[in-house]
Specification:
It holds the Pfam family Peroxidase_2. The protein is mainly alpha-helical. It contains 8 helices and 3 strands. It has a 3-stranded antiparallel sheet with strand order 1-3-2. The chain binds protoporphyrin IX containing FE (HEM).
Length: 265
Amino acid sequence: MSLPQSHPAVHQHKGLSCPVSGKLHEYCPPQAGDSRSACPALNTMANHGYIARDGKNISAFDLIRGLKACYGLSTPLAVFLSVVGFIILKKVRNISLFEIGKHNAIEHDASLVHHDTPQGQEYAPIDIDQTLVGRLIADAKTGREQGEGPEAGDTRILMDATDVARARVRREKECRPIDSVHAEIARGEMGIILGVWETKTHDNVGIPVEWMRRWIGSERLPDGWKPDHVQGLLDVVKRSKAIRTAMDEMKKNEAIANGDEKAKL
Ligand code: HEM
């Protein structure tokens, strides 16, 4: 069976460029044989040619360069994520994106849009559960007026640290328990993107939910978006703390609502 004319040609990715789009940093989905991970940030970088489009033979330096160019991360933050990532993975040589998902290294259960790693498997699933994407977006709309939001054609809804906390509390209840280090990693992952995309409207601060839906659900950057500031490490630490504080508050309120008197102390 031949492909319809409108279908993009099936092709091989080599290096940062794509033989079909031809344009630097234009989106192209992974092709057969390309390697992808459980990380939306890294997959997006490969889909836009900020690291090798086939997701293979990637060094820590490639990641540092890509994180700075794609998301505007500061050098210390890009070096921290890449070098610490390679150390946790116990890798010196170049890696394929799939290898980043080694279970319980950086990767953890209770992900926002991925299922827990099945018992006995070494690597996390990379499939995105679009129902979970919808729930994440719904967590960002909780408490906002009915009829407002993307379904109503409103792209102004912004996701903030409290919305991320709501999603994390929900996933940590639904999934296998995670230890404190992986819980911190999970908050940090979202803390970075909250900083990179922070947007202000007259009465709200956060990241546009439609950007989040497209990024975490389809591993694509918003059209025409380029970094507008340098995203630093300390700012990410502050944002992770804000997510943690909001999570603690939610858990406390829930315990009180369930009649746990000690939670009031
Ligand atoms: C701009 C920088 C980055 C951002 C914004 C980011 C963001 C994220 C987010 C939001 C997730 C969670 C996906 C989910 O819950 O389903 C994730 C997962 C992951 N990221 Fe990244 N990431 C970044 C860089 C990196 C780097 C440099 C590495 C490794 C060297 C990495 C490794 C991972 C891994 C292994 C996971 C899977 C964790 C899980 O089980 O959910 N990430 N990332």
